[in-house]
Amino acid sequence: MSYGSFTDKAIDHFKFPRNVGKLDDFNGEGYAGDPECGDYIKIYIKVDNNIIVDIGFLVFGCVGAIATSSITTELVKGKTLEEALNISDMDVIESLGGLPENKIHCSLLGPSGLKSAIKNYYDKISDLKKCLIENKVNF
Ligand code: FES
């Protein structure tokens, strides 16, 4: 198989993606897809004390989608939610040492899925607080 002009690092993340799979005990999950090509990612995060302590992903997509999703999980594991929200598609591209011009858009998949998972986590926390308040539980 030819990998065109992907960097060695991108090919390594494609062949040996990190943090693959659904977490058993996630507390945030997100999705993102590219309607143009049909590629799709699901991301699971485990947040503890505002830190992403674990992350997993499932992806259906191209070499670029797999490599950028994998590096996204490495970039945010151990980071605060605020730091993770600041990870951009350019950070993903730079971390892989670049992407072929026609694969630049693939770098959006990981950060978009991650933002969706963090939003889901915040929504759950908000629902929990609402429930505690409605039930007059002090916290
Ligand atoms: S071709 Fe769609 S994300 Fe790569």
Q: What this model shows, in words?
A:
- The chain has 139 residues and is an alpha+beta fold.
- It has a single domain, classed as Sufe protein. Chain: A (Alpha-Beta Complex), CATH 3.90.1010.
- It contains 5 helices and 3 strands; from the N terminus they run H-E-E-E-H-H-H-H.
- The chain has helices at 8-15, 63-76, 81-85, 89-95, 109-134; strands at residues 28-33, 40-48, 51-60.
- The protein has a 3-stranded antiparallel sheet with strand order 1-2-3.
- Helix 1 packs across helix 2 and helix 2 crosses helix 5.
- 32% of the residues are buried.
- The model has no long low-confidence stretch (mean pLDDT 93).
- The structure holds FE2/S2 (inorganic) cluster.
Characteristics:
Sufe protein. Chain: A; alpha+beta; binds FE2/S2 (inorganic) cluster; 43% helix; 5 helices; elongated; 3-stranded antiparallel beta sheet; 139 residues
Q: Would you give the CATH topology?
A: Sufe protein. Chain: A
Level-2 CATH architecture: Alpha-Beta Complex
User: How can the largest sheet be summarized?
Assistant: 3 strands, antiparallel
- Which small-molecule ligands are present, each listed once? FE2/S2 (inorganic) cluster
Q: How many helical elements?
A: 5
The domain count comes to 1
Task: Provide the CATH top-level class.
Answer: Alpha Beta
Identify low-pLDDT runs.
none
Nearest-angstrom radius of gyration? 16 Å
Count every beta strand, where a strand is a DSSP E run of 2 or more residues. Answer: 3
Q: What's the oligomerization state?
A: single chain
